[in-house]
Amino acid sequence: MAMIRFEGVTIAYQKQTVLENVNLEIEKGIITTFLGPNGSGKTSLISSINGTIKPVCGKIYIDDKDISKLKTKKLAGIVATVPQLYNTNFNFTVLEMILLGRSPHIGYVPGKDDIDKADEAIEKIGIEYLRDKEFNRLSGGERQLVMIARAIAQDTEVILLDEPTSYLDLKNQLKVLNVVKQINSSQKVTCIMTLHDPNHALMYSDKIVMFKNGTLETGTIEDMINARNIYEVYGVKADIVKVNNKKFVIPDY
C-alpha cells in the first residue's frame, strides 16, 4: 500500500529544473532510502513531502490526501522532519526542543500529556541524561538523537530524515541509523532517508530510490544496489561482496 504518491511532480529553482515529471510510490511502514550524487534532487524531493518546497506542477498525496490542500499544522501532524543539521539562537533545553515537536497538537502552552510524550520519546532514544542540558552545547551526534526524539514526540505517520549521518563519526552514524530502524520496526512509522553511503542503505533500508541524471528508479536493495547502478549513479567502479551473509559495496580505488 502506498503511503506517499507523486504524480507528475516537477521541481525547479529559478526556472532551472531539478526533477521533472516524477511518478513514484513510497510504501507504508517501511524504510525507503534516496540514493544519488550531490545535486541530484534527493533533498528537493524529500522537502516537497513536508511542504517546504512547492512543485511547479504535479501532485503529492500522503495517505490519499493532496498535501497542497492541507494546512501547515495539519501536514505537521502527519509528517515530521529530521534535518541535516539544526542550530537555534535560543538556549532551549533538550526537553524544550523536543516539546517543539508537539506544536501541531497543542495550543499556546504544552500540557502534561505533551511533557509525557516528550519524556517517552527521550526514553525510547535513551537520552535521559541529556534531558535538561542546553541543546546548543551538545555534540552533533547528540543533536541528531534529540531531533529524532522530537520527531517521535510529534507523533506522525511519516518521518523524513535528510542526511541523518552527516557530520557524525562512525559510532554515532550507526547509533542514529539503528534508532531509525528501531522506530520503524516498533512503531511501523514510514521512514524516508537521504543517504550518501550505499553501504548504509544496504544495512538499513527496505526499498531504494536511485537518482540517475534527473530520472528515478526504485526497487529492493537486491535489485538496486549492484555494480552497474553504482557506476551509473556515482561514476565509480565497485564490487558487491558478501561477508557473513551481508552485502557490501567495495569501490575500486
Automatic annotation (TrEMBL):
For this UniProt entry, the molecular function terms from Gene Ontology, in alphabetical order, are:
ATP binding; ATP hydrolysis activity
Query: Which sequence ranges form a coiled-coil region, renumbered to this chain?
Result: none
Q: Does the keyword Transport apply?
A: yes
Q: Which domain of life is it from?
A: Bacteria
> What name has this protein been given in UniProt?
ABC transporter ATP-binding protein
Database matches in CDD domains:
ABC_Iron-Siderophores_B12_Hemin
Keyword ATP-binding present in the record's keywords: the answer is yes
InterPro entries with a match to the protein in the record: AAA+_ATPase, ABC_transporter-like_ATP-bd, ABC_transporter-like_CS, Metal_Ion_Import_ABC, P-loop_NTPase
Q: Which UniProt keywords apply?
A: ATP-binding, Nucleotide-binding, Transport
